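Quick start: read one record
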Amino acid sequence: MLWAGLCVAPAWAADAVASTSAAPVASAKPAASDRDPLGAALAGEYALQAGKLDEAARWYLIAAEGRPLDADIAERAARIALLAKDDTRAEAALKLWRERAPLSAPMRGAEATLALRRDDERAAKRELVALMRMSASNKKGDESWRYALLALDAGAGNPKLTGKMLAHLVDAGEIPRRLTAWLAFGQFAQQLQRQDIAAKVVERTIALFPDEPAVALLHASQLRESGKADEARKVLVGLQPSMAVLPELNIAVAREYSELGDHAAAAELLARGPQDDRTFAIRASFLAQAEDKVGLGRLYDELKRDSASPDPDRRLLLGQIAEFLERHTEALEWYLGVPSGSQRWQARLRSGSVLHKLGRKDEAIARLRELQSDGAADDETRRDAYLTEAELYKEDEKADAEFDTYARALAAFPDESAVLYSRALMWERRDDIPRAEADLRKILATDADDVNALNALGYTLADRTDRYKEALELISRALAAEPDNAAIIDSYGWVLYRLGRNKEALVELRRAFTKQKDAEIGAHLAEVLWVTGEKDEARKFFEDARKLDPKSRSLQRAIEKTGVKLPPLPPAATGDAKTP
């Protein structure tokens, strides 16, 4: 995962609510030997950049063993071995690290991670408890508990043991008396889908911090996740007195109503009190999610009434709301009336899309091409005008015109990564994997550390070819740069599955789904569970994935491959409803 195409449509709803660069890949492998610590370190770095994590772990351990006073290289050797899932070398590197540096929270966190991975319950408990007590006994700002949480997160691929360790920390009262710690562990319990533990965390957090609105929000969230929607609403109603003195709490409470599926209540809540463009935009987002065109129409009229001389932000918002309401003529007028500033360029981009929706397709293309050649526009806007044009041709199923637009874009912006990435998406959609690969490799030729391209190429090779070893190396390079990225963890799990390493794949895919509830990740996890004989659990994840996105291509392929039979979805969940 993930083929996350560049979005050139307006993101007003999402925006309202809501790398470390490695050294370039070397052209030739440096010489190294067991007696040359510096050469071993260079070889380790080369292997790391090439995505060969097992080799990197081996060379870094050699380098650490050859430099007996260097604690930093021992720590790096331990971390790389953990990333490579090489438990034997991780243990050896950790031993060197312990010998060379004082006991620390990062060290204990690494020890806990290794223990959880080895299913060593006793050692894991010892290190996790020690981290908690470091926070409890040290100065107020000590956050050693975060290393325990990171270790639990790394071990989330084994939810039974991770849940058992988390339950022990809660039951034994080991979590330090810090609001941030209790909130974080409560949220992690919910991510782990252990509502029993989440309920305990909430109960104790309420007892410790009875007057904290953030605790009440956690309580409402926990009740919602447990299916107790009515009780969650009662908690939210109880927050209203606090909202009167903490206006910023309104948005957080409104979001929780939205998570309950009550988008209209969320919008109504935000309609109280002083209004500004941000509040109006969030209200519009909630009403759009509720598909409440009547309510959105009222908000639109309210905005127009209070906007005798609307500024660029307000004109842009009015255009976006009108567009969602399918009042395309009015939307076009608002967009054309945005006078200046960065809003003007976004409005001009949207005007092309609106003209297309009005059936004035030649005008739409002409408008976008004017923008492409407008010397006053910044490069990003001009580039996005090409991407928008290509998207319109995609909607019209004009494959040749879509291809020609990307060709013109690359003539104007040679080797522009956003254009190459979008064209690669087009090739993948057309099952032309060699050309998709070629475009992604062009991105990597310019920036060898482009994580999105590494992950996309690795995932595509794993999913659509039998070049699994090559895919593993590409994904491993992305994982080394962003080890906590759910999309990359999913790709890693998927290529392990394709390599036949099903047990390892399940660990990674479970962890990915814990970190991000996504239909594609859920479909991958469900398929692997199915082929390993865990069919009841597989059905659960198939159903979870279908609720998230019933039209997911990965989900459809997994259902076809496994032959799983699922109960029909209710009409509202088929994905046919219009959403922004």
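The chain is about 70% helix and 0% strand.
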